[in-house]
Amino acid sequence: MAVFVSVNNAELLRPYDSFSEWRLLMDANCSSTMCTSLDLCSCSDNTYKPTYQIFLEWLLIVLLITLSALFSGLTLGLMSLDKVGLEIVIGADPDSDEAKYATVIQPWRNMGNQLLCTLLLGNVSVNSMLSIFLSTYTSGTIGFISSTFLIVIFGEILPQATCSRHALWVGAKTIYLLIFFFYLFWIISKPLSMILDCMFEKEIGSIYSSKELSQLVQIHNKHQRLDDEQALIMGGAIEYKTKTVKDVYTPMNKVFMLEVDSILDFTLMSLIFQKGFSRLPVYQNGDRNDICGLLFSKDLILIDPEECTTVRSVIQFFGRPIQWLWPDTSLQDALTLFKTGRAHLAIVRTVNSKDESRDPYYEVAGLVTIEDIIEEILQSEILDETDLDVQVQGAPSLVDRETFDFARLKLLDTHRKNTLLPDEAKAIVAHCSVNLPIVSKALEDRLITREQITAMIELKPVLELTRGEKLYTKGKPVTHCTLILNGKMDIVSGQEGFRSSVGPWSFIGQGALNSSLDHVYIADYDAVVTSEDVVRCIRIHRKEIDELFKSHISSFELDKTKKISMIQDGENN
């Protein structure tokens, strides 16, 4: 059945084959239709929309959805950009793309309330216009669902999800469009922003407390933006201000101190060197709480151990001041004191009022150094060249200086007896195993053992030679090598009489140890003592080295014979 449709009281010239076909035409060309019968329908508002107008309206709808997405995304993206955060991005790496984007956005983000009003006005305006245009083509439930779907999905969710992750990039790329709407809505947004400024405090950005900063560092470390060492140092620098001296000081029972009347002889100065401390508290009257001064190890450079100078004389001469701190003094205040240069060590004292039978009195609790505070900031021990980090139960780390070979210091003492102590012998063996080729080669080839060399050296007498004495004479056969322990000798060699000097820990006549029974080593030089002090030395003979080789071979053969015998006995059984 052909259907004719009347529009504006005029029938359409061509028939339609079905009711649905002409109804679609009426819906597309009219805002609403009204049918009086199956064969005759008309536009209720007597308005006919040409095709180009429909196209423009849908184009405008798409534009409005785009603007809605832009306003919604920028509202979340730009307003979530913290003012302090923008300054951080700009200052951290000015040449990066993020810094350039932040520089473009920052002036407008600083006008926070007016920017917020502009974006919200724009968003509400385009959403209202979008609803009006969509109602022309839909109505009722379908219109509600379709407009809600378009606005929520394309105007809210997608743009906010994008701008929350790329706020700097989106904001910088759309800045000119933002400026246009900023001035378009200025007459409304400016008064509103002024009201908001009066109602609320000025926006200053996110400022964190020390604990929050520490947690922020841990989060960055967790996400591998900071390595473990960086996180430790940053955390220590943030938290050290909250700590006090009692958290880092060394208790007095662990402090190495000197008595004021002690004699600075070789033994005491060697002990000071062995301890390795640069500053030493000095006490008097036999009371470790009665500290009267500080001795710096560098003050001992010009002290002669033979003069028996007292500690009292040194501290009185230099007059090092003593700095005092309380246990509850903050590390920041202590570091400020140390940075002034007056001292890098302070004594920590408390007031003891437990004894009711006497008045309260000062009691020394320990000492604190600038190194203690720096270690607290770095969250790790600072070790020098002779330190060894040793993990001990109950303590995070201790410093062990026993790895340094202090036995060599004893060899510098000119007042020692003409014998070697076990530690001194070990020091000489260690020197020979590296610097005496015949010994180092024999140890490497396992022809002798270190224990055999040590036993031989321990039995060596120490020779003392005075100025002018000859140790070697040119042209005479030599069967021994000499190790100088302290003092100085001159070597005169060659026809021209070339002269050179040798000092402590030098070998003379090494060729004698390489000689054999068929070939005797002849010295081609003179070795004469030239130092004012006594030259102390030891001699190592070729015969002694040969005996070590023979004894080692004999013990090796004996062990081999025992093993063969044990194997044979086992087979017989």
Give a written overview of the molecule.
The chain has 573 residues and is α+β, with helices and mostly antiparallel strands. It has 5 domains: 38 residues, no CATH class; 149 residues, no CATH class; 33 residues, no CATH class; 155 residues, Roll (CBS-domain); 136 residues, Sandwich (Jelly Rolls). The protein is built from 21 helices and 23 strands. The strands form 8 sheets. It has a 4-stranded mixed beta sheet with strand order 5-11-10-9. A 4-stranded antiparallel beta sheet has the order 14-23-17-20. A hairpin with a 2-residue loop joins β3 and β4. α2 crosses α6 and α17 crosses α18. The longest helix has 31 residues.
Topology-level CATH name of the largest domain: CBS-domain
CATH top level label of the largest domain:
Alpha Beta
Give me the CATH architecture of the largest domain, please: Roll
Q: What does the main sheet amount to?
A: 4 strands, mixed
- Percent in strands: 15-25%
Query: For this structure, what is the CATH homologous superfamily of the largest domain?
Result: CBS-domain
N→C terminal distance: 124 Å
